[in-house]
Automatic annotation (TrEMBL):
<feature type="domain" description="Outer membrane protein beta-barrel">
    <location>
        <begin position="9"/>
        <end position="176"/>
    </location>
</feature>
<dbReference type="Pfam" id="PF13505">
    <property type="entry name" value="OMP_b-brl"/>
</dbReference>
<protein>
    <recommendedName>
        <fullName>Outer membrane protein beta-barrel domain-containing protein</fullName>
    </recommendedName>
</protein>
<feature type="signal peptide">
    <location>
        <begin position="1"/>
        <end position="19"/>
    </location>
</feature>
<dbReference type="InterPro" id="IPR011250">
    <property type="entry name" value="OMP/PagP_B-barrel"/>
</dbReference>
<keyword id="KW-0732">Signal</keyword>
<dbReference type="InterPro" id="IPR027385">
    <property type="entry name" value="Beta-barrel_OMP"/>
</dbReference>
Length: 183
């Protein structure tokens, strides 16, 4: 079974080898990142450890410019240690991405902006809604004309809607993107 999966992945890489960041092509992939935030307030200090997985799909409506939708899966541990609370949330984030260098460059630089909305739950509590926006910039290294490895610096401003609790986070991320050619 593992050999079949490996064969499928290699076949996918070679069948899409002529596509990249040009109009009419698709972007499929995602990234993962980890952040640790300490919040100081009048009521006490809180620490948040977040692990995020963000699969996405996008479409190049112009050369070097894509728009699409990202799914956000966030796993949070608040105040790690004896008094910890674990939470998870999921949501959606429409995005727009721009690549700065020419379409045939092996290494390229990109910037992305998004708006996100998430729904989460902490233990037995009711659903908690979050919304916010984010920016990221980074470098993508293309292994071939279709598959790229990304490294990015991210900024996210998120607000918990129930009490207007706001978190601003800067973190690094990495991910893969596959650029599929429209046939």
């Amino acid at each position: 079974m593992k050999i079949l999966k490996l064969f499928f992945f290699i076949a996918l890489l070679y069948t899409t080898a002529n596509a990249q960041i040009t109009k009419g092509n698709w972007l499929v992939g995602g990234d993962a990142n980890f952040s640790s935030v300490k919040n100081k307030s009048e009521t006490g200090d809180e620490k948040f450890n977040d692990f995020r997985i963000n699969p996405n799909v996008g479409y190049f409506f112009m050369d070097k410019i894509s728009g699409g939708l990202q799914v956000n899966l966030v796993f949070t541990n608040t105040n790690p240690g004896n008094d910890s609370t674990k939470a998870s949330s999921y949501g959606f984030a429409p995005f727009v991405r721009y690549y700065f260098l020419e379409t045939d460059e092996r290494i390229n630089i990109f910037a992305e902006a998004n708006y996100s909305y998430r729904i989460g739950k902490t233990g037995s509590s009711d659903n908690i809604n979050w919304n916010g926006y984010g920016f990221k910039a980074g470098t993508v290294l293309f292994f071939n004309s279709s598959v790229g490895l990304e490294f990015s610096i991210n900024y996210v401003d998120t607000t918990r809607r129930i009490d207007n609790f706001n978190i601003n986070t800067i973190f690094v991320g990495f991910g893969f993107q596959i650029h599929l050619e429209k046939k």
